Amino acid sequence: MNKKITPRVIRIIALQSVLVIVAVTILGGAVITHQKYKAKLENPDSAHSNTADIEEGTQASDAEKNDPEASASSSTTKVPETTSSPDEENYPYAYAGFTPKVTDVNADLSKFIVNGKYSLPADYKPQLAEAVKGSGVYLDYRVAPYYQQMYDAAKADGITLTPISGYRSYNRQKNNFENRIKENMNKGMDKVEATKTAATVIMVPGSSEHNAGLAMDICSLSESFENYKEFEWLNEHAAEYGFILRYPKDERSREITGVVYEPWHYRFVGVEVAKEIKSKGITFEEYVGVA
Ligand SMILES: [Zn+2]
What we know:
- By secondary structure, the protein is an alpha+beta fold.
- It has two domains: 7-42; 45-288, Muramoyl-pentapeptide Carboxypeptidase, domain 2.
- 36% of the residues lie in helices and 8% in strands.
- The chain has a four-stranded antiparallel sheet. It has a two-stranded parallel ribbon with strand order 1-2.
- Strand 3 and strand 4 form a beta hairpin.
- The structure holds zinc ion.
- Zinc ion is lined by residues 62, 64, 210, 215, 217, 265.
- Residues 62, 64, 210, 215, 217, 265 line the site of zinc ion.
């Protein structure tokens, strides 16, 4: 039997529709908020609303803007790895003048040098641990506990050292780098020029400390981070937890490290060494003896 469509029935239907729309809106909002939060954790770019002062091209090297390792959530994730090791003959970007030596991956963390001249083997894969419980950002398992300690100590002082970008795999670095080469070639550059230009904004694969899980980008990827209270705290206390500001502001450091000032990038070297490097005001390259 058909119900009569009375004004009362219409009102009920209309009310139900409104309730459904409200529920969908609330749920949808929650999902979007969650996705934004996830994106914030996974993509440093979206962690800033103000990206004006981190334009690409003004920051040399380091692939900071290119996302921590999404697959880092599991050190057992199966990622196809190439087996070739970078060396002066077969490093894949030798055609553009990049001929790093293979760094000693068995070196003590206080001597483990990773830079444009000393690159990780393509198959290097550190054992990982979460830097801060629940953050989804990973570091070498030997480093992560120190980050957690530093994070907790800062927290007790009312400072939050948000881990933005930790471990990033060699292959992720390679994908970022090669995508940039393609973009540059699409703009009309030849392969050599496209590769050299890519290397000014993204470190060549294997030459970022993030590929080793030894460094963390903290809070921000903006040079203005140096004005934050979090930066001030790090300046005062990072060495107590074994971390150094890896790419200092002065020109001399820039020449030695090959990387412009990055107030957010902290490298673990161990407590004693971090204190020594800080008190002497030297770069890690100088400490290791490869400057
Ligand atoms: Zn970094």
